[in-house]
Design goal:
heterodimer; A: alpha/beta; Nucleotidyltransferase, domain 5; 3 domains; five-stranded mixed beta sheet; four-stranded mixed beta sheet; 9 strands; B: alpha/beta; four-stranded parallel beta sheet; 8 strands; 50% helix; 11% strand; globular; binds iron/sulfur cluster
Chain lengths: 431, 389
């Protein structure tokens, strides 16, 4: 089947989205951008293809299971595929690490194997349905486990923890820059077996299910056209005519998600964009942050690092605030200093965080005003749109300034740019 | 007698109030009352007062105003005061203001006057174009005409003729106010521990929104109360703040300078109250008198052209000497052309006189005081070390 692919190469993450001929999203994938756009593109695309096969499988199963059972099976299957991929990369990491061990360093080799054995043993638990992971990126999961387990093992084995860290640091870059092997077939089959195993009471017609799976795997996903966009788009591994500007893609993507959208706000890692689109989703006017990346997503990243918290924990903590400390600067570089200043003055963490979120949104409001304000439906996209505290502030300010307009936020809004790009790809073939 | 804390609290309330409640109440108290807003750095408030109207000094939105629409009116590489002033207007916080004067201080303010005309066509708007030539026969006669035109415009707002006697009376009242303002500055310079700059600052800010008579009374109350209060003297150095004549620093910045070990013994925060250096004569042609005072006896500032390079900085040096200041802190708004272009010339003049100086920039909503404390503190320490050496 013909597929149209959009790739959005962001400063922090790279997203891919697969569209079928009827403009239905088949699947999307995301990975950290690293500093290797080519690999990031390949990985995101492969994730999207895997997701697309899951969608096909789900379609094939329709009618065979009640919706609860179907969801459960799909969830299990997805988790198990992630587990398979994780184990594959973990194996690669193990091999790469040991290739860096000097001959004769038997103790280190033994310790390293111990570390990887333990991670491998605990992996199924990490990928169980409903298990919470701080991140789905291999680097993040593997990194934190190696740190944790490595320290214990090194201590017991009487070798320096540094040795293990050094090996990891050297190897992770190699591993990240090697896109995982294809082998969809095997991975799917194994994941499927595990998923079924985990749900023995599921009433499934095995022959039919297997046939559906076979079909999902065997369907050829032909890349009819690829369009790339995003921060790194100049270095996208595509010819020029396959590249569209990020703003165009965002505008169109938001339009596809919510056809009545007239204004789009996207807050990404390094920029904030306010886009006005016409009824066809074509950009009429836009504004971006100028001067610097103050008040963009990366700012929250710094704050999270500074507070030793996960990025996704900031919003919930800010929601606990009883007041909002006024923060006037959204300078990323000074963020840490400002934070410590406020803490030293005795302000509570949650109140400071509420103030930080408000500061970001105020900057965005100002960019929206510059682009022409909000007249009709308003769509908020980008990583920051997943942050509940930011969303709360934004909604409040939108109502205060523009009245009761509809505010759209899609949980998958991070794929807006990729969706726009894929739509451009589909249209390019059409015309 | 009123306590210092009582007066300070009252002034702080006025300072914090972005709705200008006190001015609204003044206006509502009697039908037909009019309010004329003005921006830095100087307008002849006497003329507004003579028409029975209240001059309202607008110094931007300060650190607590969130600017959402104001940014859309300007490019990013200019100061913040015009953005926050636009924000005040588009959020209807200035909807009671009947007229606005925009003094010729820089292009930003000039453009703001044009925007005001477009935004609020029903409001009397005047770009108050003061001379940059100080010869009686050129700048002097030009300025007389400018004042006459302004008077006419103001008459249109208050709906009656503004008579010479009215103006003479107002001149007298503002002469008194100016003397009192100067008395506060003298008092602070003599006993800075008794009149912290953050207090003096909001006391002067009160003069931007209160009727002048009330402000004069407030100053007298403050002087009496501050004199009576015993406060510990600290081992601070004495400095003059220069360059803050338009967009105002946040109050926390003024506090930070003092906390870091510097007593501010003079400043150029609200020059309108101290623009004229001498009393304006109350006898004779009042317009001519106002013009003469402007041409011959006005202070020196970046917004005023000094053709004789060798005279540049004379006033600042004079202030530093007469106030026994040990140094000068140039604190200018970011992107403020007048203040920042003036600074090197003034700094050279100070260096020639061996008066130490440092400089930093701020915005009215600067939130990080750590760097300010660091710089002012270092300055205070080095001044001490130099004087010991
Ligand atoms: S702060 Fe400076 S540049 Fe800005 S309006 Fe005032 S005088 Fe002009």
């Amino acid at each position: 089947m013909k597929c149209y692919i959009g790739i959005d190469l962001g400063s922090t993450t790279t997203k891919a989205l697969l569209l079928d001929e009827n403009f239905n999203a088949l699947g999307h994938g995301i990975t950290n951008s690293r500093s290797n756009y080519e690999t990031a593109t390949a990985v995101a695309k492969q994730e999207a293809r895997t997701a697309a096969r899951l969608t096909l499988f789900r379609r094939g199963l329709s009618g065979m299971l009640d919706s609860g059972g179907l969801e459960a099976l799909m969830d299990d299957l997805e988790s198990n595929i992630r587990l398979e991929q994780f184990l594959e990369q973990l194996g690669d990491l193990r091999d790469t690490c040991s290739s860096y061990i000097k001959n004769g360093d038997g103790g280190v080799r033994e310790a390293l194997n111990e570390v990887f054995d333990r991670i491998e043993t605990e992996a199924p638990e990490m990928f169980k349905r409903g298990a919470r992971r701080k991140s789905d990126f291999f680097r993040d999961i593997a990194g934190s486990r190696v740190m944790h387990i490595g320290e214990e093992v090194a201590k017991d084995a009487g070798i320096g923890f540094d040795t293990i860290i050094n090996l990891y640091d050297k190897s992770i870059i190699d591993v990240e820059n090697r896109p995982p092997e294809g082998g969809t077939d095997v991975k799917f089959a194994r994941a499927f077996a595990r998923a079924i195993e985990g749900a023995p009471d599921m009433e499934l017609d095995e022959t039919k299910t297997k046939a559906a799976l076979r079909q999902a795997i065997d369907t050829e996903l032909e890349e009819a056209y690829v369009v790339g966009t995003g921060y790194g788009r100049v270095t996208l591994p595509f010819p020029k005519e396959h590249i569209r500007s990020e703003i165009l893609c965002h505008g169109l993507g938001a339009h596809i998600m919510y056809p009545n959208t007239r204004t789009v706000l996207d807050i990404g890692g390094q920029d904030t964009k306010a886009i006005q689109v016409d009824p066809q989703g074509i950009v009429e006017n836009f504004q971006m942050n100028d001067r610097c990346a103050a008040g963009c997503g990366r700012y929250l990243g710094y704050i999270a690092d500074e507070m030793n918290m996960g990025l996704h924990e900031l919003g919930p903590m800010a929601m606990k605030a009883t007041k909002s400390v006024r923060i006037n600067s959204t300078c990323t570089v000074f963020a840490g200093a400002e934070l410590r200043d406020r803490l030293a003055l005795g302000e509570k963490r949650e109140d400071i965080l509420a103030g930080l979120h408000r500061a970001i949104i105020l900057r965005a409001m100002s960019i929206i005003s510059r682009s022409g304000g909000i007249s009709d439906q308003f769509t908020f996209t980008g990583g920051v749109a997943n942050n509940e505290a930011a969303v709360k502030e934004l909604k409040k300010l939108v109502v205060e300034n523009y009245g009761d307009v509809t505010v759209n936020i899609d949980p998958a809004s991070i794929y807006t740019g990729a969706l726009g790009a894929a739509t451009f790809a589909r249209r390019a073939v059409e015309h | 007698m009123k306590e210092v804390s009582e007066i300070v609290e009252y002034c702080q309330g006025l300072y914090d109030d972005l709705e200008f409640t006190a001015v609204r109440e003044w206006k509502d108290a009697e039908p037909g009352r009019r309010v004329i807003g003005y921006l830095p750095v100087y307008v002849p408030r006497e003329l507004i007062h003579a028409g029975g109207m209240l001059p309202l000094g607008i110094l931007g939105g300060g650190e607590n105003l969130e600017v959402i629409h104001g940014d859309a009116y300007y490019q990013s590489y200019i100061c913040r005061i015009p953005r926050s002033t636009v924000e005040l207007a588009v959020t209807n916080r200035l909807d009671f203001v009947d007229g606005m004067l925009f003094p010729s201080i820089c292009d930003v303010i000039r453009n703001l006057s044009g925007m005001w005309k477009l935004m609020l066509p029903d409001v009397y708007v005047r770009y108050f174009d003061v001379p940059q030539n100080y010869r009686d026969d050129i700048g002097g006669s030009y300025y007389v005409e400018e004042l006459k035109e302004l008077k006419q415009g103001l008459e249109g707002v208050c709906g009656r003729k503004i008579g010479d006697d009215d103006i003479r009376r107002s001149i007298g009242i503002y002469n008194d106010n100016r003397k009192l303002v100067n008395a506060v500055y003298d008092f602070r310079a003599k006993q800075p521990w008794k009149a912290p700059s953050s207090e003096v600052y909001i006391l002067m800010r009160a003069g931007m929104v209160l009727p002048v008579e009330e402000h004069s009374q407030l100053i007298q109350d403050y002087l009496a109360a501050a004199e009576a209060e015993n406060r510990p003297m600290r081992d601070n150095c004495r400095i003059v703040v220069q360059g803050s004549f338009c967009e105002q620093p946040p109050l926390s910045l003024i506090k930070s300078i003092e906390l870091a070990g510097c007593y501010i013994v003079d400043d150029d925060y609200m020059l309108v109250a101290r623009w004229l250096l001498e009393d304006v004569p109350t006898a004779g042609d009042p317009i001519a008198n106002l013009a003469e005072s402007f041409i011959k006896h006005s202070t020196e500032t970046a917004a005023k052209y000094e053709p004789d390079g060798s005279r540049k900085g004379k006033h600042l040096i004079g202030t530093a000497r007469s106030r026994a200041a040990e140094g000068v802190i140039f604190a200018a708004p970011s992107f403020c052309d007048p203040a920042l272009l003036d600074r090197p010339m003034l700094a050279n003049a100070l260096s020639r006189e061996n008066i130490p100086h440092i400089s930093f920039k701020y915005a009215e909503n600067s939130g990080q005081m750590q760097p300010i404390r660091e710089q002012a503190g270092t300055f205070a320490d080095t001044i001490k070390l130099w004087s010991e050496a």
